[in-house]
Amino acid sequence: MKRVCGKLNRKLWAVALFALVLSLIFSLAACSTDNEQNPENYLTVSGQITLGGAPLANVTVLKNGEDFLPAVFTNSHGIFLATGLKNGDVLSFIRHGYTFSPAEHLVLSDEYDLRVTAHAASGGDDNGGGDQLQTFSVEITSDYPDLVDAQGGTFEDGTQIPLCAREQDGLKFLGWFIDGELFSSLTDCCYTLLQNASVEARFVEVPLAPHLEWSVQTLTLCWQAVSGAASYNIHIDGELFAQTENLCVSLDRALSDGEHQIAVEAVGNEEFSGGISHPAQLTIDVKPRVLGAKNIGFLQNYDGKFLIFELGSDADGFSLKIIKNNIEWGADALLCDILEYPQSSELTLSLVPQAAEEFNLNLFASFVERQENGEDLTVVAVQFDGLFGADGLIAEILNRGGTPDFPEPLSGLKLTGAYQFQVTALTSDENFRDSAAESIEFEHEVRLPTPASLVFSDGTLTFAIDLNSIGAQVDDLFFELFVNNVKIAEVSADECELSPELQSPTADHSLTLSSYFSGDLGDVTSLSLIASAPDFLCSLSATIEIN
Amino acid sequence: MRKSRVWILIFIVALSAAFALPQPLFVTAAAQTPHDLHIEQTDGLRFVLWSGEEGGNWFSVKLNGDFIMENGFIWSADGEFSLEITDYVQTPGNYVIEIAQTDGENPITPFASHTFSVSGVLEAPQAVAVDNLSLSWDAVANAAGYTVVINGIAVASATDCVFDLSRHIVISAQYCVAVFAVPQNPDLFQNSPQAVIWYEYNAPLAAPKNASIVYFLNTYLSWSPVLCADGYFYGKASDLPLSITAANLEAAFYYTENNFADISSLSTGGAEIALIARRGNILSPVTVIEAR
Fold first, then answer.
1. Is the pTM here over 0.95, yes or no?
2. How far is CA B68 from CA B45, B53, B81, B112, B238, in A?
């Protein structure tokens, strides 16, 4: 008996010890909440709800008629703990099939032994003391079930149903809808089952996130077009930097040296109702540039035409681009591959985008060293006069027009006009990046050939013109007609019956003077012609004296 | 009163009454309204001529309603009369001349009228000048417009007193530029004589292009050749003469016939370099290059 009692006493001591530890934990939790989470002295209320003297579990405690977040409900001992309360808050209790006394409790101070009695409402189940619990069914639905992690089924009244969803590229989570009404926009939340319910996870289609390409050297951000995107939002370090319809944006001027967060969102078109994609994100590190090419200019002397520029000692090489309209040739060269003047190395500039070899430009480069103010400089000379002229590289390329592999971008190229030479200092040092591009423009002018073999007979002037001698196609050619050195008319090539097969030095072209001159032919002492065309310098004048 | 004095008095009264009587008492049966009025011009003088009563030598003459002669005596032995009116018809225009025979004090015939025109030649345009291929002249009275003739070729009609020659003068040469006025009313005026001016046109030189200063073994200034240029002046832009003429540039600037120059000795010190093409005294616009 003593042993039994002894055992019983030990059990009682153990229960008492457990209760003490539990109360200490509650006290500590309460203190902790007061001290750490309730800096404004929030109040705490705990207590027990019983039904017929037995604990009643799964009773939801509401604050001012609304759920706590996270929800507060009674455990299997009927005990609840509500924290974060303010003076004047009203607690109430809800469980389907029960009423409570008191129905509401006004919070005025911390309380740790609130006693609430439950009563079975008419028709409600009495689960107190082991009574049968009421059950409800919940149905989880979604157009994208793969993105939803929640189980439907039949559960006891008050069961917390965890709801978890995830987004994927092209789909954004809209929210959890219970019986058609928005319950929560959070992907992860819980729903307390109090009645039969239908829970739907809704998603909305948005454009896919763009795939970003980042150029460390040029600080250019590019991406491929996203289907259904009307424009793109570019964010730098969390701030909207630009909205653009382009697929590339230069961030050269927007970024300081150092690390930055870049994000691009595709903004949907009408099909997507303007929905915005998930952001495509990049972390970039902008490194300082090396010094750019200096003293860039041209040297034209007996030896030819040269592009001259100077590179600082921190440059390992240079990138040269020749740009005309939207057509670009480019090459990267390392200084160690260039020979010192008076020797020279071939420099091949490829068409961008790359085309067959015959559309490349082959130039020659050399360098000399110099010092300026104690700084070592490399002076690079790129000879480019081979580009121009009737036998020049550009004319050769243009002569290939119409061949099957003739690159489409070249179809609009004209020999004459402004060429932009762009130089960038290159570095292989990981702690630096290439310089900004420096550029200079060279205007290549072409003079039309002078009309030749002028003959005036029976009121008709015949002449020839050798357009092949300039190596360029001439559009909209016309002739200025002069009588006695006085310009009287501009005659289009068509009127002279000029046609491609006639554009040879031997062909004769003719114009009838009376079509342009109403005066007396007896007053005419000389006739002259000047060839003209847009984008070309006019020819010298050709004159025939009339007896 | 003596009887002889009474008769004298009666005679005087009768004579006075006779003068006071209406004219027809004096008109003979042969009085004729002047006719066959016409205008003749001889040796730069204009005359109006008409036929009238033989011996009826008193006339009143009106021009455009104003008397130019009133009760004037014109002698004629055969009834053919003439009156010089040159001074009254100096201005070209339409005129109406009216002539009536008088008795020395009053017309004794109705006025006969004749309408005639006097034409003239427009004055030649004055102050003809060419400035920067713009031809200008002073307006001419009664001119409807002007015709511009270059080297004997009528190139255009103008209504304003200015004409842009650049459409017709392109080639460097000497031009004979003439302009004459065309009348509003060709019945009254003839074209004016031509006002002629000789004009030497020198096509301008283009400014040098693609000019730059670079260092390659030496410091060079180079540029693309300018068509028809004999040579080029170059120097510091700050040394440009106030009046940019070939003579002034010869004194202040360097000169080369090439399209490049070694300017190592020209201490630029970051100064701007000016470059000018020349052909004789013709200068191109100035190209300024920043020395880097």
1. no
2. 16, 21, 16, 15, 76
